[in-house]
Design a protein that fits this description.
Elements: H1 3-21, H2 34-39, H3 46-57, H4 65-104, H5 112-120, H6 122-159, H7 167-181, H8 191-216, H9 232-250, H10 255-259, H11 269-296, H12 304-307, E1 309-310, E2 313-314, H13 318-339, H14 341-351, H15 361-384, H16 388-416, H17 423-453
Antiparallel strand pairs: 1-2
Protein name: Amino acid transporter transmembrane domain-containing protein
Transmembrane segments: 49-68, 74-95, 134-159, 165-184, 196-216, 236-255, 275-296, 316-340, 368-388, 394-412, 424-447
Keywords: Amino-acid transport, Membrane, Transmembrane, Transmembrane helix, Transport
Length: 463
């Protein structure tokens, strides 16, 4: 390593030490607001990065992969899953390389919008990347609360089939629990929660695979039909809707914020964390998608767990379905609080005083109130709009596809300016163009699906 790189790394480490100690700079003349100081503390190891990454990517949305396969078929489904894994692993490494480069130059970027502002200009950070990231992350919080309410209701009905408690009651109960978790002060403070989350995602994926194998070999399984249903128009839009689902499943949207939690020097740590994360990704995504689609074919429901119940009765061992729902429910709490961090960071920036201590009464009171109100809003939307799955497809198409597939390639090309005669420039350009086009088409497909399902929508529906 050259003396310049050593000096840059030393500056980076000293700046982070200032940040952890309550200083107000990261790099030369770089001011930090309360959100960066208090929420994005840089204290973690690469293992902690791996825990955060796994929780943000390997979430219960993976139980929708058999449904995506139903619109794609075997060959296209496996190919899309492989492409999704390959492109996101590559893209997340591109973002990490850009972040490491700027840290070595004396300016450590802690947020996605900071990257956009520094690399593309202030308008990109303020009017494009920032709003899209906030929409995606807060939408994920709403989805987690809704899915958790549905899991709680499923557990309730398995135990009491004649029960009459409505879905919105379970959503509200989980919302109260989320309010408590939301008070964890920083992203780094979630490291142990996210380690448990990693174990939970492996557990419910294993249970889902076991349930699929059991169902696929029982006489209660639907006929194994792997043909793609619908007319030509439905099939075409179904393909793009399935791509949006897969993009949402692989989506992250908070790579810079996650990398911000690691202690300096940052070089190489994200790659190790991604290797840990994608070991879990490949293990869970492919096993659940393939076993689930094998078991139910084109009869796959929006989530595989719905196929495990027919007319309110379990078609796999009841105990297995119960623990699968329980593991899913518990992990949703971790996923929800991870995706709440960008909201917490914004709220902290607005309402906290960076010159006071993180636990000063001046900062604790607005933190408690603002985070509770944010979760209350998400809970209200989840209870009112239990068909949020359709809207989540739109968020995935409009948000995750550009943020996680297209934007990293653009950031890398603008920052490092690779030669146009080399492969890297054209690979990145191709990824940016193809996935930007897919984002537009998949957004249209998601809007169409919302329009088709609109007649079934009902506020506070008990689904």
């Amino acid at each position: 390593m050259g003396s310049g790189a050593v000096a840059a790394s030393r500056d980076d480490e000293e700046a982070t030490t200032k940040m952890e100690a309550g200083g107000d700079t990261v790099g030369q003349n770089q001011k930090l607001d309360a959100g960066a100081l208090f929420v994005l503390k840089s204290k973690g190891s690469w293992l902690h990065l791996g825990y955060h990454l796994t929780t943000s990517i390997v979430a219960p949305a993976l139980l929708s992969l058999p449904f995506a396969f139903a619109a794609l078929g075997w060959a296209a489904g496996v190919i899309c899953l492989v492409i999704g894994a390959s492109v996101t692993f590559y893209s997340y490494n591109l973002i990490s390389r850009v972040l490491e480069h700027h840290a070595q130059q004396g300016r450590r970027q802690l947020r996605f919008r900071d990257m956009a502002t520094d690399i593309l200009g202030p308008g990109w950070g303020k009017y494009y990347i920032g709003p899209i990231q906030f929409l995606v992350c807060f939408g994920a919080v709403i989805a987690c609360i809704l899915l958790a309410g549905q899991s709680m209701k499923a557990i309730y009905l398995l135990s009491n089939p004649s029960g009459t408690i409505k879905l919105y009651v379970f959503v509200a109960v989980f919302g109260v629990f989320m309010m408590i978790l939301a008070q964890l002060p920083s992203f780094h403070s979630l490291r142990h929660v996210n380690l448990i989350s990693l174990v939970l995602c492996l557990a419910y994926s294993l249970c889902a695979v076991a349930g699929s194998i059991y169902l696929g070999n029982s006489d209660k399984a639907p006929p194994k039909d792997y043909s793609i249903t619908g007319d030509d128009t439905d099939r075409v839009f179904g393909v793009f809707n399935a791509i949006a689902i897969i993009a949402t499943t692989y989506g992250n949207g908070i790579i810079p914020e996650i990398q911000a939690t690691v202690a300096a020097p940052v070089t190489g740590k994200m790659f190790k964390g991604l290797c840990l994360c994608y070991t879990v990704v490949v293990t869970t995504f492919f096993s659940v998608a393939i076993s689930g689609y094998w078991a139910v074919g084109n009869q796959a429901e929006g989530t595989l767990l719905s196929n495990f119940m027919v007319d309110g009765a379990a078609v796999i061992p009841k105990w297995l379905l119960l623990i699968t729902q329980l593991f899913t429910l518990l992990q949703l709490s971790a996923v929800g609080v991870v995706y709440l961090q960008p909201t917490n960071e914004v709220l902290e920036s607005f309402f906290s005083d960076a010159t006071r201590g993180q636990y000063a009464p001046r900062n604790v009171a607005p933190r408690l109130l603002s985070r509770s109100l944010a979760v209350a809003l998400a809970t209200t939307v989840a209870a009112m709009v239990p068909f949020f799955g359709d809207m989540n497809s739109l968020i995935g198409a409009f948000g995750f596809l550009p943020l996680d597939f297209a934007v990293p390639a653009i950031f890398y090309n603008v920052t490092f300016k690779p030669s146009k005669r080399g492969a890297v420039f054209w690979i990145n350009t191709t990824i940016a163009v193809v996935f930007s086009a897919l984002a537009v088409i998949a957004s249209v497909a998601a809007v169409r699906q919302i329009a088709l399902d609109a007649k079934t929508y009902k506020l506070f529906a008990n689904v």
